[in-house]
Design brief:
63% of the residues lie in helices and 0% in strands. The chain has 385 residues and is mainly alpha-helical. The chain has one domain (5-318): Orthogonal Bundle (Hypothetical protein af1432).
Length: 385
């Protein structure tokens, strides 16, 4: 027989730490709904995210390399799945709510524009006089308003705790959007985990893609990036000489293991010192409790600087992304001037949010491929010139 909701909630209270966010204590949804029968509230949220159109479109949005430039390079979707997996692992180690951590991780990039962070910067510039653009804030907008699947409400009607995690999402690559309805100093520990898991994934897997593309070099990494050197020495100690692909894989794996171990051990110590006894006491803390150690943070900042100098700003990455975002800007300007070329749903939304915001929503929802196709339809076969 399937396990009923009440039993699932009882199991959470038996096995999770007292400062975990229990699904039975959820603050609920904006639009009341009957509770799920065989899932917790956060499992329902997870399924709604996975079944959303915005989630499926992540497959064709840039992570670092322009989408479609390599079969093995990560997309926004594969990045999201990796963040969710690491979030679950950390949450389980700390006896926190894996379902909530996973759901926030799966939803954290739903609002990302095409063409990665360069596309985000262009949209923000284009929207400078109309509220700006920030992909974390847009992710919240997607789940609260833009998805149109249910007859009784706009958006996905996710629980307050998931939306809190999106509103307060912040990594070294992001700026938090905040929000009037999320007034606590800190989000749940599960949301804090999704933040750190995002960084862990960026650091480690961007190294992997950089090596796979040939833009990063192992010998230079050994000399210039301590995190890589430490992991590579440990792999050599354990396995000796390995073929190139295997050696790189195990080095990346060692980096991830080291990051996760550091977060878990540091967080356990901070939780002991803080003596928090509930999720609400976590929210009252002055600083996040899910953190790297100071030593690991210093090493990560060195690695981040190296990635910016040698990968993100590399002409082979920045050049195509810049040309692609020029297309985005030209499509945006054209649609601002020609409302008749945007769908009825966007025109309807413009009555409430303004025409620039409606066009921004439309552009942000595009995949890289669709934005390029729209540019070609509007301007011919020589995009961005």
């Amino acid at each position: 027989m399937p396990v009923a909701l009440a039993e699932l909630e009882t199991r959470e209270r038996q096995f999770l730490a007292p400062y975990a966010q229990f699904s039975g204590d959820s603050c609920g949804r904006v639009h009341p709904e009957a509770p799920p029968t065989w899932r917790t509230q956060f499992q329902r949220d997870r399924d709604r995210v996975i079944h959303s159109r915005a989630f499926r479109r992540l497959e064709y949005k840039t992570q670092v390399f322009l989408n479609g430039t390599g079969d093995h390079l990560r997309t926004r979707l594969t990045h999201t799945i990796e963040v969710a997996a690491i979030s679950r692992n950390i949450a389980r180690a700390l006896r926190l709510n894996e379902d909530l951590a996973e759901t926030i991780a799966l939803a954290h990039d739903l609002g990302h524009s095409p063409f990665g962070h360069t596309g985000e910067e262009v949209l923000d510039r284009l929207m400078k006089d109309h509220g700006g653009f920030e992909h974390n804030r847009q992710s919240l907008r997607v789940v609260e308003e833009l998805e149109q699947k249910y007859p009784g409400f706009p958006g996905l009607n996710l629980s307050w705790e998931v939306r809190e995690g999106l509103a307060k999402h912040k990594t070294g690559f992001d700026v938090p959007p905040g929000g009037a309805s999320f007034i606590h100093r800190q989000p749940s520990l599960e949301a804090q985990i999704a933040n750190l898991a995002d960084e862990v994934t960026y650091y480690s897997h961007d190294l992997d893609d950089g090596l796979d593309s040939g833009l990063l070099d192992e010998k230079r990494l050994l000399r210039e990036v301590k995190v890589w050197a430490i992991a590579a020495r440990e792999v050599k100690r354990q396995f000796g000489a390995l073929p190139d692909e295997s050696r790189r894989y195990y080095t990346i794996r060692q980096i991830i293991d080291g990051q996760v171990r550091d977060v878990v051990e540091t967080t356990e110590e901070l939780l002991r010192k803080a003596k928090v006894r509930s999720a609400d006491e976590v929210r009252a803390q002055a600083k996040p409790l899910v953190r790297y150690s100071p030593e690991r943070r210093k090493l990560n900042l060195e690695m981040r600087k190296y990635l910016y100098q040698n990968l993100y700003y590399n002409p082979a990455v920045a050049g195509p992304n810049t040309r692609a975002t020029q297309m985005l800007a030209e499509v945006f300007s054209h649609l601002i001037a020609h409302p008749e070329e945007v769908g009825a749903q966007a025109r309807k939304r413009a009555k409430k949010d303004g025409w620039h915001r409606a066009v921004c929503d439309y552009i942000a929802s595009m995949t890289d491929r669709y934005c390029i196709q729209e540019h070609q339809r509007l301007f011919g076969l020589n995009p961005g010139r």
